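Case study 2.
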Amino acid sequence: MYKLIPNELRKIVLDIVYRKQSGHIGSSFSIAELVCVLYNNFDLINDNVVRDKIILSKGHAVPILYAALNKLGKISDEEMLTFREISSRLQGHPDKVKMPLLNASTGALGQGLSIAIGHALHLKKFNKKVFCIIGDGETQEGQIWEALMCAPKFKLDNLFCFLDYNKFQGNDSVENTLPLESIYDKLHSFNWEIYRCDGNNYNTLETHILNVRENGIPKMFILDTIKGKGVSYMENNNAWHSKCPDEKLYKQGISELI
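Prediction:
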């Protein structure tokens, strides 16, 4: 199977968002390494309902999933050009009716972890894993914390939750909006097994994910990431949460990613 490379996915995201002048680049770029690790190592794209699953709770970052599915042959180059068109399967947030490989329709923040728990309960007997990606701004939602209480009760060690801790949200920094620290202590107190690592280091991330224990405890990965990772003028610049580049900046971004 084709081995996904983070900057190749970033180039695709930058291209489709530039062409449509619509979409979320910064939030997609921060999880490129994670998406590559998951698709490179787990059973996520076969046509069987009983497979490992990704739930992208921070649904606005869906361009990075489209990029992965494009490289893996599940979305054609021609279809990628329909991104965010009304009749397209490639909506601005995941639509599982149009694109069943996305597993959940998300975008109303805070709901994805609850959905992932339902999948994990079903798939545990088949020895399949569920990977849920949540945002740090999203973690201010109350439903996230209800789900965090629920998963340990059912001993869902097949549930992997990834907190994309890029320190920014829609309009400001997380610190200025509603601080999360000490996020490690808070999550640990909810009886999750916690791992914290550089979420933009592919090898480190892969090593952590592939070496977790099956011990009846759900897994939480706090990923310290960079919003806009890979393009200098976007990195840690929250203006690029949903901003789209002009031709000059587009060409500069593509050049840097190459």
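The chain has eleven helices and five strands.
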